[in-house]
Specification:
- The structure is a single chain.
- With 344 residues, the chain is mainly alpha-helical.
- The chain is built from 15 helices and 4 strands.
- The protein has a domain at 27-256.
- It has helices at residues 18-36, 43-68, 77-93, 98-120, 126-143, 159-165, 169-195, 198-208, 210-215, 220-246, 251-254, 257-271, 277-293, 298-314, 318-327, and strands at residues 9-14, 155-156, 248-249, 337-342.
- Helix 3 (77-93) crosses helix 4 (98-120), helix 12 (257-271) crosses helix 13 (277-293) and helix 13 packs across helix 15 (318-327).
- It is globular and about 70 Å long.
- Its main location: membrane.
- One of its GO terms (molecular function) is branched-chain amino acid transmembrane transporter activity.
- Keywords: Cell membrane, Membrane, Transmembrane, Transmembrane helix.
- This is Branched-chain amino acid ABC transporter permease.
């Protein structure tokens, strides 16, 4: 008799597994430790956590684009830079509170991403990747001509704006720390719940075969546009936070390909593209390698490149993909599993 037709059995669809429950519990404990860090950690450690948080958020957004929607962008620095410049514009010229300006910068970047998408979506494959980089360069060159924003040399946040963040240095750094932590957790949560929704199923079908997904009724253009705009908006929020912490912005720093796109691509490839856990593992690996090798200057970048190439050749699924394949572990459950039990 077919097990599904057996009246002596009960069926339940579940997503969580033992590994996911353990993993989420450990992550929750890590978050609690990080929340308590300002009361026991030194200033350098807190700044490192802030940097880790915004790289994790950037990696999640790029992974959403490339790993789930199949849009390999090398121009995400466009949205980092736009977020940073909008923060400066809103706070210095319109007098908005800095933290409110961080959120509004993300909204405005998302709106700017819509006409940008209408241009780059005409391109496919490598042409799409090059097109996103060209758009980022256009934004960089354009903002370098705006004298009210410092032109090519950039500008610093006025002291009056800095005091709005906090009355003293410790207060400012604590506020930025908790904001960075919230943004990183929010980025992971946004991707997690998106992938568990109907849009997540549409993204999976587009990634596997865009023509086939279209023939099954998936509106590929609308789904990809939604993901592109969402990733741009979240990246813009991160960009605003980055330059709120730095207190200074310039076109070269804001639209830096190496800092805001190349490093992020490395993180996702090493950790595992197309997985939620991959960017987290990749960010940890990147910070460990940077801490150990940064003193060697140019050799450091060569070693990172060699590590990335070897990983793509030997384990293209990344570190977490390799672990998941060998051991079956997962932290963020995505798949539905049918659990069959006997009736008492």
């Amino acid at each position: 008799m077919n097990a599904l037709n057996n009246p002596a059995l009960t069926y339940r669809v579940q997503r969580t597994t033992t590994s996911s429950r353990v993993g989420l519990t450990l992550l929750g404990l890590c978050v609690l430790v990080l929340i308590s860090a300002p009361w026991w950690a030194d200033r350098a450690s807190l700044r490192l956590v802030v940097e880790f948080a915004y790289y994790l958020a950037l990696a999640q957004m790029w992974n959403l684009l490339a790993g789930y929607a199949g849009m390999v962008s090398v121009g995400q620095q466009a949205f980092v830079g736009l977020g940073g410049y909008l923060l400066f514009m809103l706070s210095t010229q319109l007098g908005m509170p800095p933290l409110f300006a961080v959120v509004l910068s993300g909204v405005l970047v998302a709106l700017l991403a819509i006409p940008t998408a209408l241009i780059v979506f005409r391109l496919r494959g490598a042409y799409f990747a090059i097109g996103t980089w060209v758009v980022a360069e256009v934004f960089r060159l354009g903002l370098a001509q705006v004298s009210s924003l410092g032109g090519g040399s950039g500008q610093s946040l006025p002291a009056a704006i800095v005091r709005q963040i906090g009355n003293d240095r410790d207060g400012r750094e604590m506020l930025i720390y908790f904001t960075a932590l919230a943004i990183a957790i929010g980025a992971v949560a946004v991707v997690f719940f998106l992938l568990r929704s109907r849009q997540g199923l549409a993204l999976a079908s587009i990634r596997d075969s865009e023509p086939a997904s279209g023939s099954l009724g998936v509106n590929t253009f609308r789904t990809k546009l939604m993901v592109y705009v969402l990733a741009a908006g979240c990246t813009g929020v991160v960009g605003a936070l980055i330059f709120l912490q730095k207190l200074r912005i310039s076109p070269e720093a804001a639209f830096n390909l190496q800092d805001w796109t190349a490093v992020v691509i490395f993180i996702v490839i090493i950790g595992g593209i197309g997985t939620l856990e991959g960017p987290l593992i990749g960010t940890l690996i990147y910070f460990v390698l940077r801490g150990c090798l940064a003193q060697y200057g140019a050799v450091y970048m060569i070693i990172l490149g060699v590590v990335a190439v070897v990983m793509m050749l030997k384990a293209p699924q990344g570190v977490w993909g390799l672990i998941s394949e060998r051991l079956g572990w997962q932290v963020f459950p995505m798949q539905r599993r049918l659990s069959i039990q006997s009736k008492p």
